[in-house]
Design a protein that fits this description.
Length: 527
RNA sequence: GGGCCGCUAGCUCAGCUGGUAGAGCAGCAGACUCUUAAUCUGCGGGUCAAAGGUUCGAUCCCUUUGCGGCUCACCA
């Protein structure tokens, strides 16, 4: 790989090569990601998942055998009731329980953690992400890690020394690298008292002031604290790559201590990369129900097709923060994607460097890398699609009839796009952007002279709309205004009032053509 | 207190291993008697935060400073 080629490489490819370089030639590369499902798994968390997915794909394209694991840290403690969860009073009662023992007040699953998990697991396949899920609660509770916990206990002093390097308050002498959920209360308000040097651990339940000795091979109570748990899993799974947010990847952060702790477990830290957070733009407004402004993958998938969701992340360096837009920027995002697509299919000429870059972005944006489209999507700007949809009150099939020259594969993509467009129009589009054609019940109170003008326009529509271009037909519009002694602006206002009950609307001639003479006449002839 | 990131046209940002910068939007001008961020065309010299340094040459490397943001030092 020459330096010149390297310069143009996509970050996922650069990362894949770095992994191969640093970890050597291996039979299997393990790439990992994970999070505590202690609340809605939002789009910022998704950034980590998609980052791993892209690197995994880049590795596989290099002929590597890759395992992509996703760890749900669902044996974590429920510390805080998130603002956006229903029935907070009920949830309040479960603080300090493991999140798998907290009820799911959203009704999605049989426990709180699982509810947050399924939301993500249901959506990830839609964007082409298929990790192997690992459930830490199940692992811990079935004692899979008993040996690792014993090791951690035996390396107590070394671990403490590593953690103390960055702490202001050193860990106490009686600190143990293990957390215990009480078998009396299920809560973690406990304190380890003694370890027998093997598998016997004695703790005290601080709520009840009761003591118990458990066997870490047979009781489900113990887990490792985060800064020990993370490196333990690296060693256990043989992780070669795992990215992290900037909270982890800072001096003194958990990656820093984990890369020392992992050596105690006889392994080396994975290659990592830092990703920045995601901001939201244009969300809130109409739908800010709880004040807690969260957007998860399903919120984003509602207004962007899967390949565009991927595109947002593929096209941005992970280390750069960016905003996901729900406002009018949505239009631009669609245009940007379509532009990349046009470059990919050679419909747009750009220099080699740019073309190469966009080509790779397009490929990686596709949900299934074995099914990359062989033709571009139907060329219609997103805003036009929005107008067509509104003309037909959201009836996708009617819109497709108008776009009859679209191929089957284009229609398929158009359907997805239209669903997104409709959702966007209903939830986020600004008021000025939205309209609906007037029905029989919403007549505009027109004067007699206005009615005459409308009737004349109806005649022109009937005779000429279908046969003339947009530009040609605007002449008839001007003529109608002139014939009836109306100023243009007044006449335009009148027509919009009649058609959509608003003073302004889409550019009139084009709008009339988009509606089609049949629909237009149906409305005009009421006057 | 430590660390990290950013500071480029009015706005949002590209510019990724050095050869004095570019897209979109806004704006301006014109085209058709016209209207929403929804017509087309033309128009982009901004001390690349500041000062030093390295260099034949720096927006891009090094140092320092300023401003903004994030993060760790509690837990995960």
């Amino acid at each position: 790989m020459s330096e010149k080629e390297n310069q143009n490489m996509h970050w996922a490819d650069i990362m894949a090569e770095k992994i191969i370089r640093e970890k050597g030639d291996k039979e299997l590369y393990t790439c990992a990601s994970g999070i505590t499902p202690s609340g809605t798994v939002h789009i910022g968390n998704f950034r980590e998942i998609i980052t791993v997915e892209l690197v995994v794909r880049a590795l596989r394209e290099r002929g590597k055998n890759v395992r992509f694991i996703y760890s749900w840290d669902d044996y974590d403690v429920f510390r805080k009731v998130p603002k956006n969860m229903p029935d907070p009073e009920l949830l309040e009662k479960y603080l300090r329980y493991p999140i798998t023992l907290v009820p799911d007040t959203t009704g999605r699953a049989d426990n709180y953690a699982r509810g947050n998990e399924v939301a993500v697991e249901d959506d990830l396949p839609k964007v082409g992400v298929f990790p192997e899920y690992i459930y830490q609660a199940a692992r811990y509770r079935s004692n899979v890690y008993a040996e690792e916990i014993r090791k951690a206990l035996s390396m107590r002093d070394e671990i403490r020394a590593i953690l103390n390097e960055f702490r202001t308050e050193p860990l106490a002498d009686d600190w143990w690298p293990v957390a215990v959920f009480s078998s009396f209360t299920d809560k973690d308000n406990t304190k380890v008292i003694a370890w027998d040097g093997a598998y016997g651990l004695t703790y005290r339940d601080l709520d009840l002031d009761k003591e118990e000795t458990i066997d870490i091979r047979t009781t489900p109570n113990t887990k490792l604290p985060w800064r020990v748990d993370w490196p333990m899993r690296w060693a256990y799974e043989g992780v070669d790559f795992e990215p992290g947010g900037k909270d982890h990847l800072t001096e003194g952060g958990s990656y820093d201590t984990a890369k020392s702790v992992v050596r105690l477990f006889g392994a080396e830290a994975p290659v990592t990369m830092r990703y920045d957070f995601i901001r939201l733009k244009g969300k809130g407004g109409k739908i800010s129900s709880s004040g807690g402004e969260v957007a998860d993958l399903s919120d984003v998938l509602e207004i962007y097709p899967p390949e565009i969701v991927r595109y947002l992340f593929v096209g941005t360096r992970p280390s750069a923060e960016f905003a996901i837009s729900f406002d009018l920027d949505v239009l631009k995002i669609y245009e940007d994607y379509d532009n990349t697509e046009r470059i990919y299919f050679g419909l747009l000429n750009v220099n080699d460097k740019k073309r190469e870059k966009e080509r790779r972005i397009y490929e990686l944006s596709q949900v299934d890398d074995r099914k990359i489209p062989t033709e571009p999507g139907y060329q219609i700007p997103f805003r036009h699609l929005c107008n067509y949809l509104q003309i037909y009150s959201g009836d996708q099939e009617k819109v497709l009839e108008r776009l009859s020259d679209a191929t089957e594969s284009q229609k398929e993509r158009l359907r997805v796009r239209m669903s997104c467009a409709w959702a966007w129009l209903e939830k986020y589009a600004p008021e000025e952007f939205c309209f609906s054609l007037s029905g029989p019940d919403s007549l505009y109170d027109a004067s007699e002279s206005e009615r005459a003008a409308i009737r004349e326009l109806a005649g022109f529509v009937s005779d000429h709309l279908d046969g003339s271009t947009e530009k040609e037909f605007s002449e008839y519009i001007y003529k109608t205004a002139a014939d009836n002694g109306m100023e243009n602006p007044d006449f335009f206002r009148l027509v919009y009032m009649v058609l959509i009950g608003k003073e302004k609307g889409p550019k009139l001639a084009g709008f009339l053509k988009a509606c089609g003479s049949e629909k237009v006449l149906e409305i005009l002839r009421r006057y």
